[in-house]
Design brief:
single chain, about 600 residues, alpha/beta, five-stranded parallel sheet, about 10% strand, Rossmann fold
């Protein structure tokens, strides 16, 4: 039976309506599919890529001797827009170019991911499900001339010391014999005090949060052996040779896409020498060191050194290496318990040599006082054979002393301070630059908890009795201070790079976290547009001592210790060049 025309018309209209509904439903389903796909696949891919990057990180093994520092850098694939050049809050930071400021147009620009190319890294730090969120480190795959080639030519690293033996065992040096029972059974090595370059680099290979994706990195590590580099050329080489590797390095770095993310302000490197070796003030051939830390690019990076400058913002003090390199937590706990139980028969002790060439040195007076005292143990260090060169003799003396005198050496700092604290001996400092303004990442800001401070002028001008001063401290207070020193031991030693401490954080861990915190805070300041035009780099040592949240500095009781000479050359006691030269001369003496 044939349908009427009006029925056919209604049927067609219904069919068209159904088709439109189906089309709308399909479009809606497709939209939700795209939305869910983007959420679960693309965004969650950040974590997947991060975990994959961690698994394929820059090295999974550390050789006993010369380990190759390698990673597979990932090209970003686009040229990120330049970030705003802003000064961050007044921390001791790698400052940007002070001549570049935010413009009015910059202020009106929305703060978005396409403005700040580090936003993906900031998001990673907020991912609570990722144990490495906010802790990823990207390591540059430097050409071997910047690191491993130096180890292959280890005989050239020092004029007076065969450094080849000190670069064995991942930079720890040869194992120490324990004939006198001074050390524990494992973890003790004849470590050179300037071997931090290679020790730190090898520890980085075992860092649990390495990534090949620089866009999620909280910081970028540059495995350049800066200390070894300058050690090769300090004596008898012109400034062109001394500067060559540093200039080569920054030229290489600035061509990398990772550099453009923050113009290097998220980069850090390590040099196991004092800062003055890298701060040549002129282009005179007779001037000391190279100019690495004065290069514009290096001013944006953070350099970790065993002694930093109180007047500059791009270097940070980290501990000298000691002889102890634990492989597991139990090694540390056993050593700490042993240090608590020792019978300490000497009130105070001193290991060192006088500085007759420096009229402002108090070492001669300390030695005289120790000789006259019945409660002081003295190890005199001078030319030729000396027990000062025996790790066993030094540690044995520190273990039998309540207090250990730690005056300035040729520069502010000395390795002996860390050896003494490792032995549970309370350090006595005479200059705030020897520890308090140096190692703010690793030592408590309240220095009275773990040390005694006697200003140099109390010895130099007033000739106060050290024995009398130390005897006035109540025994119960001494016990509390010693326990504080012993509790600091884990964060003052570098663990064996070939293993990993289970729960404890060593000097490496503390330093890396401090760098991450510094970069993260700087990024937050940039995002929020926070600036501080009142920051005075010459007061860097003061900013490092400020309580959290405080930004303003003023007069300080330690100002006289850091009065800078008019020529800007360094400590008022001596020029930075002379300080560094004297340090090398005494290194030569210690090896002769």
């Amino acid at each position: 039976m044939r349908k009427r025309p009006d029925q056919m018309e209604k049927g067609a209209a219904a069919k068209n309506q159904n088709s439109r509904l189906c089309c709308l439903a399909s479009l809606s389903a497709f939209f939700w599919f795209l939305l869910l796909y983007f959420h679960f696949v693309v965004l969650s891919g950040d974590d997947t890529n991060a975990n994959s990057s961690r698994k394929n990180s820059y090295n999974n093994h550390v050789d006993l001797d010369h380990s190759t520092l390698s990673t597979t850098p990932v090209s970003v694939g686009y040229e990120p827009p330049p970030i705003h050049q802003v000064q961050a809050s007044p921390r001791k930071i790698g400052l940007p170019d002070p001549d570049v400021r935010r413009s009015d147009a910059d202020t009106d620009t929305p703060r978005a991911e396409n403005i700040f190319p580090f936003m993906r890294a900031m998001r990673a730090s907020e991912n609570k499900s990722d144990p490495c969120g906010g802790r990823y480190i990207y390591v540059h795959d430097l050409p071997s001339r910047f690191n491993e080639d130096m180890l292959k030519e280890c005989k050239s690293l020092s004029l007076w010391t065969n450094m080849c033996k000190f670069t064995t065992n991942a930079g720890l040096g040869p194992p120490l014999e324990n004939a006198e029972g001074v050390f524990s059974n494992t973890g003790w090595y004849a470590t050179n005090q300037f071997a931090v370059d290679v020790i730190f680099g090898n520890r980085m290979k075992q860092y649990e949060c390495l990534t090949n994706d620089s866009s999620i990195a909280a910081a970028v590590f540059v495995p350049f052996y800066a200390g070894f580099d300058i050690a090769r050329y300090l004596w008898g080489y012109n400034i062109s040779m001394r500067d060559a590797a540093s200039l080569d390095l920054v030229h290489w770095l600035m061509k990398r896409p990772e550099w453009s993310t923050m113009n290097g302000r998220d980069h850090f490197l390590v040099a196991g020498r004092i800062t003055w070796d890298f701060r040549r003030l002129s282009e005179e051939e007779s001037d000391w060191g190279n100019k690495l830390l004065f290069l514009p690019a290096a001013k944006n990076m953070s350099m970790l050194v065993v002694e930093s400058s109180p007047w500059n913002a791009n270097d940070f003090g980290i501990p000298y290496p000691t002889y102890f390199h634990p492989a597991k937590d139990a090694d540390v706990f056993m050593w700490q318990d042993r240090m608590r139980q020792l019978d300490r028969k000497w009130l105070f002790s001193f290991a060192g040599a006088p500085r007759p060439g420096n009229p402002k040195s108090i070492r001669g007076q300390l030695i005289d006082q120790c000789r006259r005292s019945n409660v002081c143990k003295l190890l005199e260090c001078d030319f030729g054979e000396s027990k000062c060169h025996s790790p066993s003799s030094i540690m044995q003396m520190f273990q039998s002393s309540l207090f250990c005198l730690q005056p300035q050496g040729d520069s502010y700092t000395r390795r002996s301070a860390f050896d003494s604290m490792l032995a549970g001996c309370i350090p006595v400092f005479f200059h705030p630059g020897s520890a308090y303004t140096q190692y703010t990442w690793h030592l408590p800001k309240n220095y009275t908890k773990y040390s005694v401070f006697i200003p140099e002028d109390d010895i130099r001008k007033r000739n106060i009795s050290i024995e009398e001063r130390l005897s006035q401290i109540p025994p119960e207070q001494v016990k509390i201070m010693r326990e504080e020193v012993i509790s600091l031991i884990p964060r003052l030693v570098y663990a064996d790079p070939r293993s990993k401490l289970e729960t404890l954080k060593d000097a490496f861990d503390v330093a890396v976290q401090a760098v991450i915190d510094k970069v993260t805070n700087l990024r937050k300041d940039i995002i929020e547009g926070r600036t501080d035009d009142n920051f005075i780099e010459e007061n860097s040592w003061k900013y490092a001592l400020l309580p959290e949240g405080e930004h303003e500095v003023g007069p300080h009781e330690w100002d006289p210790f850091f009065s800078k000479p008019k020529d800007g050359s360094g400590d008022s006691n001596d020029s930075s060049a002379e300080v560094a030269k004297n340090s090398w001369k005494n290194e030569r003496r210690n090896q002769s």
